[in-house]
Task: structure prediction
Amino acid sequence: MKESPIFIKSYETMVWIMQHTAKFPRNQRFLMAKRMEEGSLDFYERLNLAAKHKDGRAGRALSEADEVLANLKMYNRLCKDLKLLAFNQYEYMAASLDEIGRLLGGWKKSISRRS
Result:
């Protein structure tokens, strides 16, 4: 399960976030960088939790992951507006988060069919 596309894409995005937030100005490193880094880690942890469980806890973990993903999308846009990310970096991150969202939606749909 952990080699599924959502795990691969989420891990790659998490690494990308860690590499780019390390370059944020000092005054934003403890606010925006921290939020983005913790958000990406929280998202991945919820995916792991969902993969471990096959009952209602999986659906709950995926719903929580969806909320975290929405926050990451908002943080990405805010970083662009604050000029912490270049526009091409914002676009890359937005496309990655969008793809992850589609994968997450498919997983949630497959769980709801089983119920």
